[in-house]
Amino acid sequence: MSEAGGGRGCGSSVPQRAPWSLVAATAAFCLVSATSVWTAGAAPMSREERQKLGNQVLEMFDHAYGNYMEHAYPADELMPLTCRGRVRGQEPSRGDVDDALGKFSLTLIDSLDTLVVLNKTKEFEDAVRKVLRDVNLDNDVVVSVFETNIRVLGGLLGGHSLAIMLKEKGEYMQWYNDELLQMAKQLGYKLLPAFNTTSGLPYPRINLKFGIRKPEARTGTETDTCTACAGTLILEFAALSRFTGATIFEEYARKALDFLWEKRQRSSNLVGVTINIHTGDWVRKDSGVGAGIDSYYEYLLKAYVLLGDDSFLERFNTHYDAIMRYISQPPLLLDVHIHKPMLNARTWMDALLAFFPGLQVLKGDIRPAIETHEMLYQVIKKHNFLPEAFTTDFRVHWAQHPLRPEFAESTYFLYKATGDPYYLEVGKTLIENLNKYARVPCGFAAMKDVRTGSHEDRMDSFFLAEMFKYLYLLFADKEDIIFDIEDYIFTTEAHLLPLWLSTTNQSISKKNTTSDYTELDDSNFDWTCPNTQILFPNDPLYAQSIREPLKNVVDKSCPRGIIRVREESFRSGAKPPLRARDFMATNSEHLEILKKMGVSLIHLKDGRVQLVQHAIQAASSIDAEDGLRFMQEMIELSSQQQKEQQLPPRAVQIVSHPFFGRVVLTAGPAQFGLDLSKHKETRGFVASSKPYNGCSELTNPEAVMGKIALIQRGQCMFAEKARNIQNAGAIGGIVIDDNEGSSSDTAPLFQMAGDGKDTDDIKIPMLFLFSKEGSIILDAIREYEEVEVLLSDKAKDRDPDMESEEQPSSENDSQDQSAEQITPSSQEVDLVDQESPEESSLNSEPESSSPADTDNAASVSASEQNSNPMENHETTSLDGECTDLDNQLQEQSETEEDSNPNVSWGKKVQPIDSILADWNEDIEAFEMMEKDEL
Ligand code: DMJ
User: Is 758 annotated in the active site?
Assistant: First the structure.
């Protein structure tokens, strides 16, 4: 590793070459010889094993890239379950996520520099030729400015950077004449109209052909953008300017950054998630380091590294100080309000923040990086992947996982910083999980639900741009890479830009830059570039000693005490504030505390209680703030509970050749028949019923006997179909949506309801698949005839045995059937088979209704019998032990189901619905109040 002598961060004068010359190997600079001092702790990994893992990464990359090139190219992305390209407009819209797709062979461009890092120079040369030959940047398609910048502009620039490096070496790319750079410049000019705002913040979207605001453009009416969207341009734009000499790009990106800096909340030094691009007002005033903000911070620090401009470091350090003061609650990183930074804005974290430990390594703040990374790793160990969001007590909040690379990125940087082989083992686990759970015959599929192991037909381009780079580099030695990685900086999409750009075409670097600072606050440099002696006081077990106290933080998590520990100690001596989850309406002490906080309890005529807060009635401003937080926690708690009470989806896993369990489809459950969450899975070959709609006695009972019958949705009740296939001897049924093109990727799942009568006679399990997932099975039958599936609540782990397993009998079903109880749940249900899925959504978010409280007070309603919504969960004992929350939630939902035994025609039996409606009103009232206050 290079020491980057003369690095600005350690206090020398203005850099002659690169300000920090590590960066691609980030921590190397600050933590020079950590790897060489390693002597104890986790067992060192032999060179042989590291090479083996590196080769495994190469093989996985070939599987992902090869399938993309064979089955999807020139489309933007591969759909790994249906093994074809995702072409925008030809698939049901997935909303914003599709804005990354510009019909410009996104995955190929995003993969360019990965090919070089992985030593696939020949393939790189071919790929560059294909980009030059096939890619059109002038499509009539509206794309995200942010995504196009980081993935396409970044991809082209990364490709160019390594193309010129290879050319200089004299073997490959000898024909190359800056063609990728010319494309990048063309794209840069296409993005510039987005900056035509008075603020200088870019519009979030642009039409590649028509720009913005012309009628043909179909975009330009947006008023808001996310902070990361406006603040993640400087590396690519500055590189483009410096490579080409066209200064306009760097100027525009700087202007946007200057504006964001001006708009930071001055007392907290934090920024919100969303900003109005015309007025500069914060639209969302919550602030964290994950979704919506993440790479804004990343680019401030990296802009300093790449461009050597002190003002970026100063800004970063100011924000970092605020992050560590308010958002960092080690090992957690929790969003807060920018105006009230002591107030948590959420009780959950998103997966994007997993990049932050890596950035902390670059900053040189290793301890919290180790802590947060360890916490994240434990969440991964629990769920195999990092769910998109998880709660402060580490339960799943959003269950999907689109193969994000952020955790691998942080793992790589922490390994570079500490040399601790523990991080190699972490990387090994990531590789194993990807192969075990995400690998499908045609690539790697995103996880739709980490709990069930079901897949989404999606392989995002960042998986190739980032994941394979970081994993390969983790196990590589210097000599395994054909160039010096330390001469480059990673963009947020892991594209490589050469550090020599810092001294090229510098003319614009000072122009138009607003900075409040003339002098740097040198004390910040202590943080920025810590002395290795301090970080590793000759202690090779340094990282381990930080991880040790966190060893069981996830398993032993208990909600109480995790949130805001810092705040509680901050008021040492004082009684900790009342938490919403502890509140009991019958506890007189609690009522007294409520009063002090300005919260009053109103008994409504219908038997419910309502909580209303008037800050002005609080005993003190601290009590008022506690009250505000209490109300907010109540609201969070309620919406969290709603989510937890939703019945999780089920899984249909294809286990026969050549799938061997690799394809897992998300299925909706039924309110009748065998409950797969309580019983073992059902496994069997599939057969189509005749008639296919299953609405009358089957004419092909011999074909479905002992098998899992496929039935088409429509014409009659779900229960009727189930009875008909059961009578024909089927051991299970899969209803396939007749709505062509429907998919669980785009439509919310629902439960199949009974027919309003007694359905105890239905003993077999029934699952619902949308048409796209259903056609994966139908296609498989066409191709392989014999297709065996497993119906379960969670996909079975794949192992080599699955490939050789005999077809099991369905004996488990017959044993279980007698014990089967129909448990109508309090979920939204699809009562009528012909109803459209959208009308009855299992996952739909509550709609807001008009504010109930004209006093601008926050109000919260709950059923009186359940005035402590978490009462059933509150099992934290005094000595800090917790019982298993998941089990309790399960128990709770079972109790609720039992007390709600009837599901009847045309009526959603959901007392919870009315409660929810009240809560929604209250949320809005609460938000209004907050707005007024601010
Ligand atoms: C990538 O496209 C980039 O890393 C971006 O900054 C946010 N995260 C995605 C992958 O998760």
Answer: no
